[in-house]
Amino acid sequence: MKALVINGPNLNMLGIREPGIYGSDNYDRLVQICQEAGASQGFDEVEVFQSNHEGSIVDKIQEAYGKVDGIVINPAGYTHTSVAILDALKAVAIPAVEVHISAVETREDFRQVSYARLACFATITGEGLQGYAHALELLRKHLEK
Ligand code: DQA
Fold first, then answer.
1. Range 101-124 average pLDDT
2. Among this protein's residues, is 142 annotated catalytic?
């Protein structure tokens, strides 16, 4: 079983960007959490990908078709704008969980819309980086069904 974790723009700046909102752990720690959680959930492989570019994220989702069993995605700023990422998730129809580090539901109005959510079977918000471990757990349970 292979899982793909996709992170959108500015998540490479974790630890530097708005630590009051996103915490002080950096992107390498996020990758470590995903690798450890994936192994403990019994995934054979967890690939962790980050891009600041919408098209690269669409390409990555398309490339996952036929190769990846489940996706964890934090589209970051593209959550609230990207029909293209939603369409890519729908096109490949790979089970997907949406993650946000912050509690987006308590933030600005423009963060209340999520396009990607429409193609995800679960959403996790406000659990910090551990939200990725939670998402991989939900994904594993979903794939076992
Ligand atoms: C985020 C929330 C988004 O609104 C924001 O644009 C991000 C990160 C989160 O993980 O909490 O970049 O997706």
1. 98
2. no
- Predicted model pTM: 0.98
- With the most atoms of ligand 1 within 8 angstroms of its CB, the residue from 12, 27, 52, 74 to mutate is 74
Length of the chain: 145
The 8-class DSSP code of residue 93 comes to T
Spatial separation of the C-alpha atoms in residues 125 and 145, rounded to whole Å:
24
Q: Average per-residue pLDDT in the chain?
A: 98
Residue 14 phi/psi, 5-degree rounding, is: -55, 145
Element (H, E) at 21: helix 19-22
Q: With pLDDT > 70 as the criterion, what percentage of the chain qualifies?
A: 100
* Alpha-carbon gap, residue 28 to 8, rounded angstroms: 15
* pLDDT reading at 145 higher than 90: no
End-to-end CA distance of the chain: 14
Q: What share of the chain is helix, strand, coil (3-state, %, to 5)?
A: 50, 20, 30
Kindly give, in sequence order, each residue whose CB lies less than 8 Å from that of residue 66, ignoring residues fewer than 6 positions away. none
Share of the chain above pLDDT 90, in %: 99
Distance CA 142, CA 144 (A): 5
